Each structure stands twice: as C-alpha cells, then as structure tokens.
Amino acid sequence: MRAEPYVNPKLTGRVKRHDATSYRICPGTGRFILLGMSILATGQTWAGPDRSIDGADLALEQVATVIVSGRIQQDDHAVSLATGGSGTSLDTPFSISSVSSQLVYDQAGITLQDALRNVPGAQADSGFNGSHTQFFSLRGAVPDSGTGSNRVLRDGVRLSNYPYVPGFVESVDVLRGPGAAIGVRSEPGGTVDIVTRQPVMSNKSSVLVSVGDHAAQELTVDLNRSLSVDHGVAARLIATRSRASEWRHVKDQLDGVKLGLVKDGGEQYHLRADFEATNQVYQPDYGIPAIGRRPASIPIDRQFSEPFGDSTTNNRLVDLHGDVGLATDTRIQADLTHLEAHATSIKNILNGASLTGQPPGTYARVSSWEPNTARRIISGALSLSNVREIGRLTHQMFVGFDYLSETLNQPTLSLPAATSPPINIFAPIFGRVIVPATNAILASSLTVEDLTARAASLQDRVDVGVWSLVVGARYTNQHFSYGVTGVRQVYEENWSPKLGLLYRLRPDSVIYGNLATGLSPNQVASSSNQSLPSRKATQAEAGWKSSWCNSALNSDVSIYQLRQTNMISSDQSTPANIFDFAVDGSARSNGIETAIHGKFASNVDISLAYAYVNAYYLSNSTYGGNRVPNVAHQTLSLWGQYHWGKHWKTSAGLYAQGARYADQANKSVLPGYARLDFTQTWLQTMPSLGTVEVQLALRNALDQRYFVSSHLHVTQWITPSEERNASLTLSYRF
Predict the structure, then answer these.
(1) Where would I find the H helices in 18-122?
(2) 223 CB contacts (<8 Å, ≥6 apart)?
(3) Taking the complete model, does pTM exceed 0.85, yes or no?
(4) pLDDT tens, position by position, 676-687
(5) Any idea which of 244-258, 379-393, 411-425, 636-650 has the lowest mean pLDDT?
(6) Which of 510, 512, 511, 483 is nearest to 500 (CA)?
(7) Within a domain: residue 2?
(8) Which domain holds residue 386?
(9) Buried b / exposed e across 631-657, counting CB within 10 Å, b at 16+?
(10) 4 within domain boundaries
(11) In a domain, 241, yes or no
C-alpha cells in the first residue's frame, strides 16, 4: 500500500457528480465517437497497400487535426510503471494503459497480442517460442535486440520468454514510451507488465472450460480462500491446462500451477509469497515465405517446419513481496524474485533464398537442436516512498534500488545444411527430414549470457495548486555479455533522466508533457565475439486526458516523437551470418495515439484504440531511410458490448491494420486488413450457488486472409492469420 495521491481541496468543489445509473448515454461523448470514425477517412485504405510504401507518404499533419478521446484505466499498477507510486491516470504526466482480464475475456482473447490490441501503438512482431510467448512492438520502436526473447515484466520484475497464461493474469499494464521507474530495463517503445492474480480476503472461486476449432482447449480452476479474517491470511491456488489451436498443424500445450499466500495487516503491512510453475510443449512455427513483394500465394495453413521432436520450456518461479508502513506518510517496499527455466528447442526451417536451378519456390531446409538450455534470473528491489507537505507544496518522494542477474547457457547442435532434401512450397513433399542418429557427430556451439545490472532511482512529484511536476533520474551500472563461449563483456554506466509536467484544466481533465529516456541492452555480439553497448531512447510527448460521467468513461490523446540510438544491424563483415551484429545508426518514430474505454451508456461498454505512427531508420549503413518492419502507419481496434438486461450480452470487434513492410530491407509487404469478431454471452446468477456464464465466440467472422507479422531480418518467416474459427466457453463462479 502506497500513499494516496495528493488532491487539492480547492478543486474538489468543482467536480460535477453524475449518478452512473441515472444516464442513458454519457453526455458529451457522442461527438468523440463520430470523430473517431472519421479517422478511417483521413489515412490510407486498411486492406490496400500502405500509401507510404508506394511512395506517397501520409503526412503526420493530416491526422494531427483529428482529436479522439480514449480511456486509460485508473490503475495503481499502471501508474507505478511511470512513477513508482500509486495514483490515477489523471495525476500522471505519462501515457499509461491497463487492460483487465475481464475485458480480454469479453473479447474472447486468449493471447498477449489479443490483450495488447486495446493499447494504441502496440503492433505484433514474430517469435517462434509457441503462441503462449508472443512478441510485440510499441510506438514503432524496433523490438529486436538480438536474442529473440520477448521482454515483459511480471508483477514489476523483468523476465525473458515469460509465457502469457490467461488463468494467471489480472491485467496487462503498459507504459507507452521509455522511462520506467521500476525494472532494470526500459524498452525504447514502452514497458509491458503482466499483473498476476493474488490472494484476496474473501472466499471466491471459479472454473472455466473452453473448447474451440482445431483442438483448442482451456481448463482453469481458481480457488481463493480467506484462511483467517482476524489475522488477515488468505491463500489462492490456480491450476490451468491450455492448448492452442492447431490450425497450423503444430502443437502448443501449457500446464501451469500458481500458489499464493498473503498476510494482510491493513495499513501497517502487506506480505505475500508466490510460487509458479509452467510446463510448455510446442513446435516452433516459422510460417510461410514471401515471393517477390508479397507473401507466397499458397494455403495459409501449409506448414514447412518438420522438427524431429517437440520443444519444451519449464519455468519455476518464486516471488516474495513486502510492503510496510513506517509512518502514516512513509512506506518501504521490498521484492525478491527467482526464476529457473530449462528448455529444449528443436527447429527445422526454410534457409536462405529460393534455390537457383530448381523449380520456383524451392528452399533448402536446416535443422538445429538446443538441448538442456538453462536460464536463471534473480531480481531484487527495495524502495522507499514519502509524502510530505512543505508550505503550499506537496512532495511525493520515491527512492528505489534494483538488482537483476540473468544467466543463460544454451548449447546448439546443428545438422549439415544439405542433410535434408530441399522442399518446394507450391508442391511440398513431406516426411523427408533427416533425424540425427544417436551417434551422429554434429556441429556444436554454446551461447552464453551473463547480465548483471544495478540501478538506483530518485524521483520527486511536486503538487502545487493545479500543477504537478515530476522530476526523476535513474542511474544504471551494468555489465553483460551475450555470444558464444569466450564472448567479451560490455561495462556501462548511464544516467536516464525524465521530466513530466501536468496541468489540471478541471478535476476531470488534464494536459501534460514529458521528456523521458531509457536504456535497453543489445544482447548480441559482433563477428569478433564482442558484446555491444546498450540501445538508448529519448522521447518528447504531449497529451490530454479526460474522465467523463463520474469516471465511467475515460480518455486520452497523445502526440510524441521517439528517437533511438545505438541501434544494431547485420555485421557487414560476415553478410552470410544474420546473427552477427554491429552497432550502427539510429531510428525515429513520430506518432499520435488515442483510446477510449468504459461505459458509453448504462448498457453499452466500448473500447477504442487508434494509432498513427511513422517509424523509420535514420543513419544506418544498410537500412538508412527505410521504414521499420512490422509497423503500419495506422492501426485501429474498436470493440463494443451491449447488455440485453441481466442475462444476455452481445459483442462485436473490428481490428484493422494498414500495410507494412515485412523486413528491414523493405523488399516485401504485408497487406493491410480489417477483421471482424463477434461474441454472444448468456449469464445466470443463482442465489447461494453462484453464477454461470456461457460465451460463444466467432473470430475472423468474414474469414479474412491476412498476415500477423514477420521476422524483421528475413522474409522466409511470415506468420499468417488464423482463418474463421469459433469457441465455446463455460465459466462458473462460486
């Protein structure tokens, strides 16, 4: 528990209250919805080529005149990403989003990318660790730093390749842009924090069963019990089995258990212990290649990876948390997290360009085997917060110290490139991949990582009248290495300042601006096996946030410019090896983001997120002036839910994305698309027995053929969309 944000008593008298049950349509918001729809007319056609790709760049000024409101949930966790303390979005001069698990469920979402479609500026990127571990980019920042790991926070702790398990998740919180106050790393485009479900002081439980097309299944049992109300002790056990759709003919199954214990002493202290274990079995899916400027015209479910075995990832995590009030205005918080991960990865991929002298669309294939990969992460954090009034000024001080250690040992065994026969994507012959004999002599290497980072943060938020000023700095001292055995380390010291200014137009409307910086290690090595220095990011942002109808509907609009330096690109001294890198140049993103979430009327819920972004490389010996791959100029997510009385709910969602390049060289294009989803839900509450809810979902209802993302280095690996599919979910809460 942290101190509540300061509220100027002179302002509270101006708040006009609205009874949430007394209005039918939220007053004053209809014009924002109409303006939001006009976005579609300001830019390029969603399903057609990106006009900038065809040479006619869409000017930023064209959409700068469109003012669309958007909701950012008032969530302590999301605020903490920006400032390290609790509060509301309207008190925070940074762009933050919070996506609740209930919203993801109502939208029939099942993945991290499903959750992030509610966040403006979030776009998909490709990874190959199964559908439970997904990749993304924020604000057009190039997500690649070489390791192929997604980077998220779990309850404020930075983890690599942490899976998204719907049954464990309470919300997904996002700081859009650099400058996180917690976590050793601050990714250039922003920080994603997966907030997990914790024990609460009540007896509530639930069971969820879901089945869908192509063998998709989920079973989750969530049991929460208050063990002692008098002593403030509660426990929660969650067990889940999740099986992803096999429409691409590969498996992905995850079994998990999460056990939490809490001791709640009210305002005096809050103690928590958490254990989590997940076992994942999957096969990497490398999608389909591009032929010329477009993905190959073949059935989108055609699979070319034929690994000779299953890949596995087993995680074991222990998390300890303590929050103690030293005085009425001072609190201390401590966190300790330990993760042990063991994995085996078996890959079979299309390699290189289409072979010459062979029928068009013929590719070589190579196999590799990464047995007994071991990753260990130890993270510790200690912070002190204090609220103090000095004259007319109210200071909210935050002092934090962080430690992160991450080690990796990843052996790789490779078969010779010519071992398995090539395959033609238009007329494939399957079943010809060579399985290595137990006594085969294989090429071997060992990739190691050793990252140790120590950081200290100091921040003061000063409130005076209708103004709030946030001034902070973060000092990071780290050394790390990533490469084959014998890789040379990088030692770094860095200061990351940030500044935010907020002005309250009225109690429910603010304008703000900020300057923020961040640091993210480039976990790669050069051809000479030298680890490379960190990428840096600097952002300037201005925005407007509002709350409507007694906070039933909340909104924001922001405009920003983000610059990255110390970018990485392929090492030109070894062009044949795409995994040799060099620090080379910079990139820039300019954009506008808008979102609106909440109750538009007493029986209508809405969620809208729109972003325009222009992301491109600046100085770069290979890609200078090119557009950043996987980043469309425009993205739109529009979802609404209508409540038909007490028992029925009908939802519809429209998700659209413009065309974008599939690779850094800008040789191939992923066409734009618009996708339509529907859900129908029936709910029945039974006194003393609980609540039953049945949801029927139809995703991609018009059966649109589109492509989710690609690998930014090559165009052989493009991820297609799932075809039309349905699911039926039954949940029982008691």
Answers:
(1) 30-37, 39-42, 60-64, 76-83, 101-106, 112-116
(2) 205, 236, 237, 238
(3) yes
(4) 999 999 999 998
(5) 411-425
(6) 512
(7) no
(8) 9-733
(9) bbbbbbbbbbbebeeeeebebbbebbb
(10) no
(11) yes
